[in-house]
């Protein structure tokens, strides 16, 4: 039998050094970051991702990027970073538009295409997102690893309810990580656990989540893994403590915020789950078919997806209806120009 994703759990969890936010935050406090610096913008965005709304990092990054583009509107890197920030802060329409424009520029086309595929996954256009990621996975590009595309393809399959395809992509992703000598992260292991859980392989799911938590317990994805593992075991005391921690942090990314729906589902808190579902859509993550079919939610809660929510999501999705044709034309053009 061939290797499966669970074979790639690090045997000793291979603890790795986490990103330290102190240096970036020190620059922010001291005012050194008043001048535009792409490196500092990336650090702020990492800080916002790690610490949530309480850090104020995303807001500071947006201010610096807007100032930069007011002075130099043709700065492609600043435009790319702003699109990336938009994709994380409930502006998927603006992000998609900017990414597609940047796909015309050499040096940014591959990263921008990956960004657009990411946004399309967030807003429920899974088929075209997979098509774009599949194209990127087949490229030999030093700036975009195959494992990155495979990881995103796996998530698309999760949200489409095709857990067998998600498993297959996940297995190939671990092989790609090994071939690239790239680290296995808390996030990789968390999602492998989620796939296993959806397949009813609960012992494997628990093993993945424990491995994720052991890598670096301070990271967001390790703490999500701890919360899911506690929820699976029915350890409501530990689960409630982690929920309170996430609530205090103020998660800004819509996909991450949807994890709160799951945590409230484990806690069987219908009212909080409904609020979190609305918060998820508000934060720019709305793959409605996933919402309707998610077994982790459907097995624990009832009537979470209202007609009003479905109508609101349908209206939001309509803003992206033209992208499948644009993406197909772009991929065809790229293929013909090789």
Ends apart, CA distance between termini: 37 Å
Strand content: under 5%
Indicate the mean pLDDT: 89
Proportion of helical residues: over 70%
- Helical stretch tally: 19
Shape call: globular
- Secondary-structure element pattern, one letter each: HHHHHHHHHHHHHHHHHHH
Major pleated sheet: none
In terms of structural class, how would the helical and strand content be classed? mainly alpha
The low-confidence runs, each spanning 5 or more residues with pLDDT under 50, are 11-33
Total E-strand runs: 0
Radius of gyration: 20 Å
Give a brief rundown of this model.
This protein is an all-alpha fold and 338 residues long.
Description:
The chain has 338 residues and is mainly α. Among the domains are: 20-73, no CATH class; 87-160 and 307-338, no CATH class. Helix content is 70%, strand content 0%. The protein contains 19 helices and no strands. The protein has helices at residues 22-30, 38-51, 57-71, 76-88, 92-102, 109-122, 126-137, 146-160, 163-179, 186-198, 202-215, 220-233, 236-249, 254-266, 270-282, 288-293, 295-298, 307-317, 323-337. Helix 8 (146-160) runs antiparallel to helix 9 and helix 12 packs antiparallel against helix 13 (236-249). The longest helix has 17 residues, at 163-179. It is globular. 45% of the residues are buried. The model is unreliable at 11-33 (pLDDT under 50).
Main attributes of the structure:
single chain; 338 residues; mainly alpha; 70% helix; 0% strand; globular
Write the layout of secondary structure elements.
Blueprint lengths: L21 H9 L7 H14 L5 H15 L4 H13 L3 H11 L6 H14 L3 H12 L8 H15 L2 H17 L6 H13 L3 H14 L4 H14 L2 H14 L4 H13 L3 H13 L5 H6 L1 H4 L8 H11 L5 H15 L1
Helix pairs in contact: 2-3, 2-4, 3-4, 4-5, 4-6, 5-6, 6-7, 7-8, 7-19, 8-9, 9-10, 10-11, 10-12, 11-12, 12-13, 12-14, 14-15
């Amino acid at each position: 039998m061939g290797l499966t994703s669970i074979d790639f759990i690090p045997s000793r969890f291979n603890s790795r050094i986490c990103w330290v936010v102190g240096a970036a935050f020190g620059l922010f406090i001291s005012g050194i970051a008043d001048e535009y610096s792409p490196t500092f913008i990336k650090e702020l965005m990492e800080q916002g991702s790690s610490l949530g709304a309480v850090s104020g990092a995303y807001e500071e990054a947006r201010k610096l990027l807007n100032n930069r583009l007011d002075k130099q509107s043709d700065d492609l890197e600043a435009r790319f970073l702003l699109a990336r920030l938009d994709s994380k802060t409930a502006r998927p329409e603006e992000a998609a538009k900017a990414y597609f424009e940047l796909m015309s520029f050499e040096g940014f086309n591959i990263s921008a295409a990956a960004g657009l595929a990411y946004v399309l996954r967030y807003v429920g256009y899974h088929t075209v997102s997979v098509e774009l990621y599949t194209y990127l996975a087949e490229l030999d590009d030093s700036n975009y690893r195959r494992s990155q595309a495979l990881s995103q393809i796996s998530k698309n399959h999760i949200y489409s309810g095709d857990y067998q395809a998600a498993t297959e992509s996940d297995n190939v992703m671990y092989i790609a990580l090994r071939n690239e000598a790239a680290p296995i992260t808390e996030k990789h292991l968390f999602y492998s656990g989620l796939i296993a859980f959806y397949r009813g392989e609960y012992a494997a799911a628990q093993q993945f989540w424990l491995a994720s938590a052991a890598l670096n317990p301070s990271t967001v994805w390790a703490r999500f893994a701890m919360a899911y593992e506690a929820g699976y075991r029915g350890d409501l005391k530990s689960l409630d403590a982690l929920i309170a921690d996430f609530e205090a942090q103020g998660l800004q990314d819509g996909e991450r915020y949807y994890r709160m729906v799951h945590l409230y589902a484990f806690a069987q808190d219908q009212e909080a789950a409904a609020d979190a579902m609305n918060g998820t859509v508000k934060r720019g993550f709305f793959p409605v078919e996933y919402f309707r079919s998610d077994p982790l939610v459907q097995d624990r809660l009832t009537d979470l997806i209202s007609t009003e929510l479905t109508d609101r999501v349908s209206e939001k999705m309509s803003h992206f209806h033209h992208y499948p044709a644009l993406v197909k034309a772009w991929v065809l053009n790229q293929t013909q120009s090789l």
